[in-house]
């Protein structure tokens, strides 16, 4: 068995990214590999404190934990896990397998500029990428000519599962993380503002962060939830909304495992891993995403069919399946083999759902509701009322002229 070092960014409580690479490092040590963690934290942090923090935040226990990336011991394999650790791995002075655990196209975490280009450069350093999901290998091959292996999005089916006789509410839940721009919190809130305006009886649950933004409609913010509580939420709701712009999140796959229909944005990064029967991909506008959510909410038969399809799709993707895929690639790399892999192709081939503009009937169109419950809701009450008053006066006047 091999010694494997992991260069990990500073811990963030509730971070799905940290949970994922710690989970995979833990699996390797369960299989007999020796895993050494090097955390970005200042070197005055004690190993005992870091070990305790990892166990408290994520439930994993590692014997060998070090603070800082300046004194990495010679090992047989080293993983970069964030873009700015890739150069550290590239420059290590001892021979080893240099690998890159890639969960997102991290260049897009940054505005276009130095940070974006430097993050892109991390894929040019000769490290071998192992990605979560099928989109990133396609992107790395297309844009950088870099071959990569992947493991599939899976879920812990012991946690995420349909509960006996779930009592579903007319409700939608949104993974709401305003501190992570890639999670598109504002787009999600504008989407649900339209849904709540058109279907005021719908309950809205936000979760996933201690942060709170400015939300103008009735909702319940559940904050950080345990994994078990997430499953209960997915069994309570009718639709799950999760928007992720730099790779799919693991959340929609956990929603599917629980039998919850998913609405996401239709973009290149979401076309490679989602089944058409369980997920509805919409043009990434608030109007279209809202239309998708409302289409599922309005049809119990469709919601049930999507839920069954999602649960069936994930039944063959237990957590162990992805972990075994990952371990097989690690073992190949340690033996000096890099299997030739063709770039994946999209799984989702349907066109994006696009909301139509109003047809002149008396009910407000999805487009019109943006004036009433979209960005204007961020204005103070008096200006907001004035703008709405003027808008609807003009709308009636234009309608009278057409007549």
TrEMBL record:
Known InterPro entries for this protein?
WsaF_C
Domain WsaF C-terminal, residue spans: 172-292
Q: Which SUPFAM superfamilies did the record assign?
A: UDP-Glycosyltransferase/glycogen phosphorylase (SSF53756)
One Pfam family hit? WsaF_C
**The name this protein goes by in its record:** WsaF C-terminal domain-containing protein
Name the source organism: Nitrosococcus halophilus (strain Nc4)
């Amino acid at each position: 068995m091999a010694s494997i070092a992991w260069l990990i960014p500073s811990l963030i409580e509730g971070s799905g990214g940290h949970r994922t690479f710690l989970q995979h490092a833990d699996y390797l040590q369960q299989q007999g590999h020796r895993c050494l963690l090097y955390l970005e934290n200042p070197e005055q942090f004690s190993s005992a404190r870091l070990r305790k923090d990892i166990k408290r935040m994520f439930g994993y226990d590692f014997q060998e934990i070090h603070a800082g990336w300046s004194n990495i011991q010679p090992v047989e394999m080293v993983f970069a896990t964030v873009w700015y650790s890739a150069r550290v791995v590239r420059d290590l002075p001892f021979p080893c397998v240099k690998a890159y655990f890639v969960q997102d196209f991290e260049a897009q975490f940054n505005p276009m500029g130095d940070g974006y280009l430097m993050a892109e450069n991390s894929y040019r350093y000769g490290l071998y990428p192992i990605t979560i999901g099928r989109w990133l290998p396609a992107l790395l091959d297309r844009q950088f000519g870099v071959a990569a292996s992947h493991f599939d999005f899976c879920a812990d089916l012991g946690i995420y599962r349909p509960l006996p006789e779930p009592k579903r509410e007319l409700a939608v839940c949104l993974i709401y993380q305003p501190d992570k721009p890639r999670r598109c919190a504002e787009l999600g809130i504008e989407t649900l503002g339209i849904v709540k305006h058109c279907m005021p009886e719908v309950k809205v649950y936000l979760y996933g962060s201690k942060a709170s933004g400015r939300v103008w409609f009735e909702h319940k913010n559940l904050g950080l939830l345990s994994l078990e509580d997430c499953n209960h939420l997915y069994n309570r709701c009718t639709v799950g909304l999760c928007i992720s712009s730099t790779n799919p999140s693991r959340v929609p796959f956990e929603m599917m495992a629980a039998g919850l229909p998913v609405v996401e944005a239709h973009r290149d990064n979401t076309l490679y891993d989602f089944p058409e029967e369980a997920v509805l991909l919409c043009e990434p506008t608030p109007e279209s995403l809202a239309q998708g959510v409302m289409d599922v909410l309005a049809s119990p038969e469709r919601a049930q069919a999507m839920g069954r399809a999602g649960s069936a799709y994930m039944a063959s993707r237990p957590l162990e399946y992805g972990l075994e895929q990952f371990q097989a690639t690690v073992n190949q790399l340690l033996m000096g083999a890099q299997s030739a892999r063709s770039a994946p192709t999209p799984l989702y081939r349907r066109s994006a759902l696009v909301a139509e503009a109003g047809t002149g009937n008396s009910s407000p169109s999805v487009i019109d509701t943006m004036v009433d419950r979209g960005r204007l809701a961020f204005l103070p009450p008096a200006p907001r009322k004035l703008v709405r008053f003027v808008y609807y006066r003009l709308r009636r006047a234009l309608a009278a002229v057409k007549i």
